[in-house]
Design a protein that fits this description.
The structure holds 2 protein chains of 2 kinds. Chain A is of the alpha/beta class. Chain A is built from 7 helices and 5 strands, in the order H-H-E-H-E-H-H-E-H-E-E-H. Chain A is globular, with a radius of gyration of 19 Å. Chain B has one domain: Rossmann fold, CATH 3.40.50.10490. Chain B has 8 helices and 5 strands. A 5-stranded parallel β-sheet of chain B has the order 2-1-3-4-5, sandwiched between helices. In chain B, helix 3 crosses helix 8. Classes of the chains: A alpha/beta, B alpha/beta. Chains A and B meet through helix 2, helix 3, strand 5 and helix 7 of A and helix 1, helix 2, helix 3, helix 4 and helix 8 of B.
């Protein structure tokens, strides 16, 4: 198939990023046709907000229908690894770095919830490590080097990217796969280059052209993955 | 290979219990439907908050974002969203997260208490034209409410993203209260992510219409 260049969440300057269809102008065409009355603009903003809220609901439903079974299989494998002493390593760039951080804290300290804490390390949370690797070697290695340092064969590597094209994620998955970690990717669009990786064990895609809607559906996917993992660990305890 | 929709690159053998996992997954996605629908019902409140934020940016203000626990990650997400927009051609707008400096956060928490971690930073970093955006995965987070109150005292615009109905923080002199309509912290976060993405999008819509922002100093 012919691969259409996709906007990327990590390439900047953004010469490769098309301004549409994700541009604000394309999202709010009426506003850019010259309305300047506050009431009219607010009314259009409300209408557009309702459309976006419905869009992410539809995307969530689509992702649930397409990925539900695979998420359950992935959760079963991750639970088995946690039960055997494995840890979760999470990584991503920009907004996805904050998702990696959210995932790590959700596993490590599920505040106000019953489930047991599980070992998880966010690889995008330490500015000293990130800036030293970026400065001395390059941003492409910031996650792969940490996986080489921390990763053990029974661990779980989970990376998030909206484009699926982030070079530092691709390298991290390669490193993790080589070391025997199970690898989980969460991407948008059509999965980008992550869909071409031989060593990626699971790939979950939020099929949208909007970076924002992709991130919103990805958040639900990794939250559901956590829910399924703790449920799986719970039922293991019951069986044991 | 050709990327299929939600492709699973490898398919581990089916094992007993898979059907249970798939059912659990379906139920988990289903739990998101109601709160997602409620988000659309708050479109007017979101548009009003975004308009007020755009006015502050237009007047030279910056966005100051903060939250506890998982919401600390959201604060950083919001800051990078405004400073380095993902959509080409959108200008960088000034935004800082108060959760990223672990030295200050832990230092203030140890000596003044966790409830002061944001109010302290806002007292020294906040300016009257600024926006205080507090994000909480619960209905009433003392650290976030404290930060918003200090921001309000300074004359900052205050915007709160909270869990539940928001009734617990009514009366806190909040200019804009955006409640997620759920008490489940995971679903609350998912609604918050959509909410702050929408705020960013709408701020740019308003910001590029200077006629709707009144007199400003930013060009």
């Amino acid at each position: 198939m012919t691969r259409v260049p996709k906007p990327s969440d990590h390439l900047w300057p953004p010469s490769a990023r098309p301004a549409s269809p994700g541009s604000v102008e394309s999202l709010y065409p009426f506003i850019y046709q010259g309305a300047t009355d506050v009431t009219a603009v607010l009314a259009q903003a409300r209408a557009s907000t309702i459309a976006k809220a419905n869009e992410v609901m539809d995307l969530r439903a689509e992702v649930g229908a397409r990925s539900g079974e695979a998420l359950a299989r992935c959760a079963a494998e991750a639970a088995a690894r946690f039960a055997a002493g494995g840890r979760l390593l999470t990584f991503g760039n920009g907004g996805s770095a904050t998702d990696a951080q959210q995932l790590a804290t959700l596993f490590l300290y599920p505040a106000g919830r019953d489930p047991m804490p599980l070992p998880a390390i966010g690889l995008a949370s330490d500015p000293a490590v990130l800036t030293s690797l970026s400065n001395d070697i390059g941003v492409d290695v910031v996650f792969a080097r940490q996986i080489a340092a921390f990763g053990r064969p029974g661990d779980i590597a989970l990376g998030l990217s909206t484009s699926g094209n982030s070079e530092n994620l691709l390298r991290a998955f390669d490193e993790a796969s080589r070391r025997g970690l199970v690898t989980i990717g969460i991407a948008g669009y059509d999965g980008g280059k992550m869909a071409e990786l031989d060593g990626l064990d699971y790939l979950f895609i939020a099929p949208s052209e909007s970076i924002h809607r992709i991130q919103e559906a990805q958040t639900t996917m990794y939250h559901v993955l956590w829910e399924l993992i703790v449920a799986e660990l719970g039922s293991r305890q019951v069986r044991a | 290979m050709t990327a299929g929709p939600s492709a699973t690159v490898t398919n581990p053998p089916q094992r007993p219990g898979d059907a249970g996992g798939a059912d659990r997954a379906a139920a988990a996605f289903e739990r998101r439907v109601g709160p997602g629908r409620e988000l659309a019902g708050r479109a007017g409140e979101i548009a009003n908050a975004a308009h007020a934020m755009a006015v502050r940016f237009h007047q030279g203000g910056k966005l100051v974002v903060f939250g506890i626990g998982g919401a600390a990650a959201d604060a950083q997400h919001v800051a990078v969203e405004f400073v380095h927009p993902v959509i080409v051609g959108k200008r960088a707008l000034p935004a800082i997260s108060l959760t990223s400096d672990a030295a200050t956060v832990t230092g203030v928490a140890a000596h003044e208490g966790l409830a002061s971690v944001f109010s302290h930073q806002i007292r020294y970093l906040g300016e009257p034209a600024d926006i205080a955006l507090g994000i909480a995965l619960e209905e009433n987070c003392p650290s976030v409410v404290g930060g918003l109150r200090t921001g309000s005292d300074l004359g900052m615009l205050t915007v709160a993203l909270v869990a539940g109905t928001g009734s617990a923080v009514e009366g806190q002199r909040l200019d804009h209260l955006l409640a997620a309509g759920s008490a489940d912290p995971l679903i609350v976060k998912e609604i918050h992510v959509s909410t702050y993405h929408l705020l960013w999008e709408l701020v740019h819509v308003f910001f590029e219409q200077p006629g709707v922002l009144g007199p400003g100093i930013m060009t």
